[in-house]
């Protein structure tokens, strides 16, 4: 049984349908990369999965339970955690307090202050520092560590490399690889196609709110993904014969 099953999901802003009839499955332990150009609907889809944005149609089934109408905190309680774009830390609070607050109503599981610091050792010397004083990479590490403190069964990550230096991105992805090796289920929105494809086991390419292409990473060529990313596959199909 899929850990996460999305069927005919729609979400938007007023008349704008940002996510149109999206369906896919995510298995336990899978690393699902959601890729697509700016405005394709990736963030809206991720926020709808987290319960931060309401679905206007369709269903989200998590571990066999329909959670479409559940609010975000209830979803966290079931094991869905999101690392939002822009980190959204409590900037005046220490790193430790940011982590402890998230852990206050955590599910039972392997993650606690000690184990997240093992996964993100760069945070150890920064525990007492206000989150707002950290570098971008350290803030991103804190944001992921904070989500882990809830002991999620699936972690939703939105643009974790955005605005970071290449070295900081390397470090964040190194820690992410540790989570992947431990079997954590990830849904990853990532603009950096190379990064996304390096870690993904499954790829969904979004275009104008819908899914232009999806499949196992090892069955999709980079060229096919790039074409779907820019909508070229559809244009090629629609183009009239020239002879
Ligand atoms: P990006 O990589 O730029 O974040 P995305 O693929 O994550 O893009 P979304 O941010 O989900 O795409 O946006 C999908 C569509 O919804 C776009 O047309 C965008 O302009 C619109 N949109 C996003 N947020 C809002 C909002 N708060 N109010 C109105 N329209 C919005």
Q: Can you describe this structure in just a few lines?
A:
The protein has 243 residues and is an alpha/beta fold. It contains nine helices and ten strands. Strands 6-7-8-3-9-10 form a six-stranded mixed sheet, sandwiched between helices.
Folded structure, characterized:
The protein has 243 residues and is of the alpha/beta class. The chain has one domain: P-loop containing nucleotide triphosphate hydrolases (Rossmann fold, 3-Layer(aba) Sandwich). The chain has nine helices and ten strands. It has a six-stranded mixed sheet, with helices on both faces. Helix 6 links the parallel strand 7 and strand 8. Helix 3 runs parallel beside helix 5. The relative contact order is 0.17. The C terminus is likely disordered. Adenosine-5'-triphosphate binds next to strand 2 and helix 1. The site of adenosine-5'-triphosphate (ATP) has 12 residues, from strand 2 and helix 1.
Total helical segments = 9
Q: What would the average pLDDT be, to the nearest integer?
A: 88
Strand coverage percent:
25-35%
- Overall number of structural domains: 1
Q: How are the strands of the biggest sheet laid out side by side?
A: 6-7-8-3-9-10
Helix content: 25-40%
The value of Rg in angstroms is 18 Å
The CATH architecture assignment turns out to be 3-Layer(aba) Sandwich
Query: What characterizes the major β-sheet?
Result: 6 strands, mixed
Small molecules held by this entry = adenosine-5'-triphosphate
CATH topology: Rossmann fold
Intertermini distance: 49 Å
Structural class: alpha/beta
The topology string of helices and strands comes to EEEHEEHEHHHEHEHEEHH
Which geometry do the CA atoms define?
Answer: globular
